[in-house]
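Contributing new complexes? Match this layout with glyoxylic acid.
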Amino acid sequence: MKLEIDQDRLLAELETLATFSDAEPPAVTRVVFTPTDQKARAWLIARCEGAGLKVRQDPIGNIFARWNGADPEAPVVGTGSHIDAIPNAGKYDGVVGVLGGLAAIRALRRAGFQPRNSVELLVFATEEPTRFGVGCLGSRLLSGSLLPDAASQLRDSHGESVDEVRKKAGLSGKLEDVKLSSGYYKAFVELHIEQGPLLERAQTSLGIVMRIAAPASLRISIEGAGGHAGGVLMPDRKDALCAAAELILAIENAARSTGAVDTVATVGVCEVFPGAVNSIPSRVHLTVDLRDTDLARRDKLMQTINRTVQSLSTKRQVSICQELLNADAPADCAPEVRAALSDSCREHGFQFLEMISRAYHDSLFISRIAPAGMLFIPCRNGYSHRPDEFASPEDIARGTLILAESLARLSA
Ligand code: GLV
Ligand code: MN
Ligand code: MN
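Output block (do not edit by hand):
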């Protein structure tokens, strides 16, 4: 079989998808189910249908585009990723796995390959936590990792529930019906940019993921006492922002103190009320994102943060509420998918690195119900979640070729 990736078409599609954005180029902002995201989804569905795939959407908006195999009843070989993008993002995160997956399927069809198992492109809905606070909603529901009731109660910053938003987006049906039956997948492979610098540093253009780190996130609200910036003397203050500042540094210190490079902690949101120059901050909302490859160490970090919250609350006389948004276990990638990827690399004479994914991905949840694996390509300087995110055309095409070869091996 002679597999050829149509690199020009793939790159042109990548550029076109980046134009569906609510930010000035080169930045991309595509928050799930906004009018812009809806247009992007419609464009993508048309591309899938144009490739001869049969498209369906489930009630949360996961898009499935199927190429029927010789045995349509046999478990499916899946590939895919997401197209939603955080505010001020780049154009490659998720998109490479979606358009690369489509390009891989087109290449297999052009080469005359006939799969035994159906091959299906999956565009996961709402991978990014931007809108509803929790990432990977689509794959959490597909894998039964999140109960439909809990999902439908999530709200965006305008107070709109998942159910209201998805219905406005034209998605009907019950969230109960999103979960896939056990045995749906024979295997699942996700192509993605690394979102870190290791491949580039090792001058290696392919990475096979062994394990995906364990993410957790919290929302913290600090309630102090506001007042006049001139009138309230320092001994009488209960400044919520000063308490938040102390807490943020304590979280950073706790993550640095585990002694493991794999422990990371980020406070990415800090909202201050009332936010006026001459008013003492009365309330602060923070989000905390914690990750580690080791579940016990990640959980210990959560306990440390919890103790700090208690002591800070007493010391600064503020009340602090914590809401745990998610605390997920890490996942090991499946040996059979890793083998398909490494055999494909060898077949084409490409070196690869075995690595950890420190970012989370929908494959973390798909791995709960199917043998799943991931293939990484480098991104310049390891930059991601920023407008100057960049993956080279050669790396994108190489990753797509290895994806196509692996899909062939898994579905033959
Ligand atoms: C995914 O976007 C992540 O935050 O790891
Ligand atoms: Mn992302
Ligand atoms: Mn991603």
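Reviewers usually confirm one structural detail per submission. For this one: The mean pLDDT is 97.
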